Amino acid sequence: MTLQRKFSLVVFASAIIVALIVGFFGYFQLKNNIVEGLNTQVSSIAQGESKTISEWVHWKTSAINSLSHHFKEHDFTTAALLQTETSGDFDLAYMGTTDGEMIQSHDSSLPSGYDPRSRPWYDLALNADSVMFTAPYIDAITQKMVITAAQKVINDNGIRGVVGADIPLDSIIEGVLSIKMLANSRVFLTNNEGLIIAHPNDKFVLKKMNATLGYGLDTVTNSNGKLVSIESTQGEVLVTGMAIPDTDWVICFQLDKTTAMAPLQKLLTYLIIAMIFAALITSFAMALVSRKLLGGIHQVNTVLAEMNNGQGDLTARIPETSKDEIGDLARHFNGFLYTLAGIVTEIKTLSANLNLLAQDSHRLTSQSSHDLSVQLDEVTAVATAVGQMSTATHEIAANAENTANASKEAFQNSQLGSKQVIKSKD
Prior knowledge:
By secondary structure, the chain is α+β, with helices and mostly antiparallel strands.
């Protein structure tokens, strides 16, 4: 792999890393902005709707409270009940006395033997000092969801009974369900026990959140007004909620996380495309720059390759076109070639002189070889003569030895003859 390609790869990798870092911070910054924007939107809607419901409750409470105060000193009359029904926009206003009598603003069918003192709303108000509201329920006659507001009537003589009114929740439900946010989002109303009062899905109404949505009211209330991500029966969602003042109700928001974060996913796609495009453009630009910057190195490499192949031209020089490290490299390399050319020239001269010396040495060696050959012939002749003299000497020595033996034998015979002469004299 060439240095230029390595440089391009490093630039490409650096561009990718920088793009990833920028994209990372951009991604989370946008995510925070989206979440903050949604939190602001939800908070604004929740505050507006809470204010509307709170004022609605205050209006109903004032009407019941006025009726209770009226009956402290006045007789229980249908006219007073009817006026309260009209002013408070109730379905029905009524008074349950301590004697068990049930007085209504208008005729409404009641079960035989109906005793208001046994009803939940009566006991609820009897044990409290303010207007109390029952949990939502479906009215048996109208088949609408209603709640009952009740307050005890008490004067100096003691408790006279409990006034109450049936309040339809149509306007509240319509108001909650009319809130439109993101696609697949839900805005619903519950009480503080997690009982759903209003929900876009009618099948969830008057059922507990845990059973229908997969999470409880505590998850909503613990969010502190900020969207939190949880798993629900509808998948991963963002939920939060706000308690409505002067009530036991909570307005809840459930946003589909995929829909809410769709701009983020779109941005992520754009960031990836832009990141790759920017990295490619940067790499291409840097490739052109690196080709120019590394041109001197390429020329050095070419010259060295030719030298390695035995075809190097030591007179070749690299253009010194820049004053940077590449230019310094070219200047130093040219200086090296100049020095090397001088060394090679000197070596060439020394080689020629050595060749002359070698020729003289060869001539002397040839002459010495001839002289040695002559001397060898002479030595050989001397050796031959010496050999012949050695043979003659051996023959002389043998003859001398035979003479000595004959002389010895003559001496012995002489002595033997002398002895024989002596013996013969005797």
